[in-house]
Amino acid sequence: MKPLIVANWKMNPVTIKEAEELFNSVKQGVKDVENAETVICPPFIYLPLLKGLTLGAQDSYWEEKGAYTGEVSIAMLKEIGCKYVIIGHSERRKYFNETDEIVNRKVKTTLKAGLIPIVCIGETEEEREMDKTEGVLEEEIKQGLDKVDVSKIVVAYEPIWAIGTGNPCDVEEALRMKEIIQKMLSKDIRILYGGSAKANNAEGYLKQAGFNGLLVGGASLDPKEFIKIVNIS
Ligand code: PGA
Question: How far does the centroid of ligand 1 lie from the alpha carbon of residue 78, in Å?
Fold first, then answer.
């Protein structure tokens, strides 16, 4: 399967014009790339405006429909053409109190609708220092992916201390975590790396550590940088 290079725009950019410009630059820059699948995950409101690259959502609600003010359903995302949904990003866990149980419900709803969840797992700096990484990953997998057909999902290993810090995880350490995750799930599962991924370190994760792609935050807002990353795969 082709590596997935996923742009997580988070709550950016501020205007429709900027979103369209960023999207169009990326689209133009990756049009000849055949070795990778480029996925753009913009804020919800930009989804219907962006056409010509694979789209993903940054979140989705677990109930299929009903009175849930402020939420966006998986059917809406499907209708708009999303193929992927990021679930359980560490920012959702931290700022919106998403638990593994919530992650589990969202993953199941996403799969039921035929979309592909990109499930984020990873340890905090404190957990890493206390040598708890493996236990944290195990717990997130056990609960977050309880009764889930893991052959249908993508997992993103995102050490929280590496996200948005400019302090990416060493390739050797990332590889070790990838192997641990594979052992807990299955050898064939697609695993992405995320956390300060940039053009100058992408090759290490993709070629040396053998990740099946990258989840890119900050660097995905700079079209030149992001296009370079896609071209490396
Ligand atoms: P970053 O974000 O690339 O800015 O570290 C990655 C992510 O949050 O998915």
Answer: 24
